From TrEMBL:
Occurrences of domain IPT/TIG (ranges): 2-79
UniProt superkingdom: Bacteria
One Pfam family recorded for the sequence: TIG
Protein's recorded name: IPT/TIG domain-containing protein
InterPro entries associated with the record: CHP03437_C, Ig-like_fold, Ig_E-set, IPT_dom
Length: 80
C-alpha cells in the first residue's frame, strides 16, 4: 500500500477512500480498526474502500490483506 486518498472521516463512516499500491487486485480483506470494510477492486494498483462506522473518535489501524501479505497504512485512519 502506497497511499490513501484520505486518512480521516466521520465516526458514522460511509466515506469512500481510494487506496493505491501494487498487486491490489488480489485483495482479500480490508479492516479499519477491528471492523471489516467493503471494498471494490478498481485496478491492480487501486481499490475503493467504504469506511465502516467507528466506535470512538481517534486513530485506528487501516489494513489491507492481499495474496502477497498484509500492509498497514503508516498514518492509520482517524475518525472525527
Amino acid at each position: 500500500m502506497t497511499g490513501l486518498s484520505s486518512s480521516r472521516g466521520p465516526l458514522y463512516g460511509g466515506s469512500v477512500v481510494a487506496v493505491t499500491g501494487r498487486n491490489l487486485a488480489t485483495t482479500d480483506l480490508v479492516t479499519v480498526g477491528d471492523n471489516p470494510a467493503r471494498f471494490s477492486v478498481v485496478s491492480d494498483t487501486q481499490i475503493a474502500v467504504v469506511i465502516p462506522a467507528g466506535t470512538a473518535t481517534g486513530t485506528v489501524p487501516f489494513t489491507v490483506t492481499t495474496e502477497g501479505g498484509t500492509a498497514t497504512a503508516a498514518t492509520g485512519y482517524t475518525y472525527t
